[in-house]
Specification:
about 250 residues; homodimer; Arc Repressor Mutant, subunit A; globular; mainly alpha; DNA-binding
Chain lengths: ~250, ~250
DNA sequence: TTGTAATGATAGTAATACTACTATTAAACA
DNA sequence: TGTTTAATAGTAGTATTACTATCATTACAA
């Protein structure tokens, strides 16, 4: 049985870097018709689509219900996004961009690749680990959506055209960033990209499984998020190191 | 760089066991209204829903299009399945059940757990490795659907009620089966369930990524399925063994 | 011969996913 | 101050989806 190693792992990150931080999260302009982050209605659309998708799931979410909730009209919402798939893609991209920036902050002035890996994993699990308050996005609720339905962004028939439009650049960039840290730990590792994407997916999957399909994971669901995070951290860290350092 | 080890790995499995094999794949009767495997129309529904979902994706697939394709009517299709979600769940369950049975066959009379693991991975990657011709299911096309959209079966808002109905029992049973083999290799391994579910997901993900999102995987897409299978096999085997044998 | 299971045919409804066009307001600019 | 323009609201309408209901037809089984 592998021993727990999360205790005292986390020197508080240097929050001062982010005190007056106003990072703008840049979203591929092909995704929207009108930039929602620039207007009042646009921000209401983002904020309320998140809470409504969280409540209904994307299948049952639609622009009519959204418009009703924000006391606007369908046609107004359609001025921002061609349809709900594009809105969903926007939210996904926002999330992965945001995660990427949080990782950048968490890794600042760090040399030790192993410490970098630890902080990356921590950032993937916990929203509170380096947070930046963006007024028109509820990161915690968005995270729940990503965990539950994020992979649907690319698991469909039109993935190739979406990919041509650059809709997955944020995810791929994040994956690249992680894989470079993995290669710092072992430059001769054969599967850095697969391990990076696996890390991202296994992280979300096991959070989801712990709550909904517990027989698919060894993580025990716990209302105390902190305790569950520690468990998931240990698992992901062990998994990553095992792959990187394994000699046949 | 890890060396390739797939050469001469595969003693031909004992196909004689399956020569006159008539395995019936049992599907939870809560999934359908009328058992489609018992009637002509039912079999047409299964066969053609697979090819049509493959062609359109589940989003654009519907019962009207299916009915047209089989020269039947919507109302007739609705007599078998409450809606397309249930039909999809049926196909998913069929697939995981079928995979489970193929693994059972592949592991017959085997003692060596390492050899068992190899055959499991092989069975997950390749449909042709132990095939059983079921006349009303095109396993290869179904496999493509599972790779592309399989995880959508449980990534939605109503996962808990679906789970209560037992819609994921086949997947969980398969996961359990694999995790027991993993524990044979290392009885003290801490995360057998997570590793089993990860194996299943990473396998499908990397087949999918190789074709559609190559920057998320180290597997090179290859029209020669055999060559790609070998690459994926090596990767999954290395990944599994690394996790099972890693000492902190 | 009668009953019943399986399917087909037709019709209808509520919701979804849009598109189009017009009206109103408010700020910006000349 | 008057005029433009951007942003939004309001209304209406269409095609498709996702069903439900009812009745007719066939076919085989008791």
């Amino acid at each position: 049985m592998q021993e727990k190693n999360y205790l005292n792992l986390w020197p508080e990150p240097n929050y001062s870097i982010m005190k007056n931080l106003s990072v703008t999260i840049n979203i591929n302009s092909d995704i929207y018709l009108k930039d929602p982050s620039t207007t009042e209605l646009g921000k209401k659309i983002l904020l309320n689509s998140i809470t409504l998708i969280d409540k209904l799931g994307i299948e049952d979410f639609n622009f009519k219900k959204l418009a009703q909730r924000i006391s606007s009209t369908e046609s107004s919402v359609y001025r921002y996004f061609e349809n709900k798939h594009y809105l969903f893609i926007y939210l996904i991209n926002w999330y992965w961009n945001w995660t990427s920036i949080r990782i950048d902050i968490a890794l600042q002035n760090l040399q030790d690749p192993d410490e970098k890996l630890k902080r990356i994993i921590k950032a993937l699990i916990e929203n509170s680990f380096i947070n930046m308050d963006v007024p028109f996005i509820d990161e915690e609720v968005l995270h729940r959506i990503i965990v539950r339905e994020g992979t649907k962004a690319y698991h469909h028939k039109t993935v190739d055209t979406d990919n041509d439009y650059g809709f997955f650049l944020a995810y791929k960039a994040l994956c690249k960033k992680i894989s470079l840290v993995l290669l710092e730990i072992n430059p001769r590792y054969a599967y850095p990209k697969t391990l990076a994407s696996t890390l991202l997916e296994v992280c979300n999957n096991n959070i989801y499984f712990a709550k909904h399909l517990p027989r698919l994971t060894d993580i025990k669901y716990n209302n105390d998020i902190k305790a569950m995070s520690n468990e998931i951290f240990d698992m992901l860290y062990a998994m990553t190191k095992a792959n990187l350092l394994y000699k046949q």
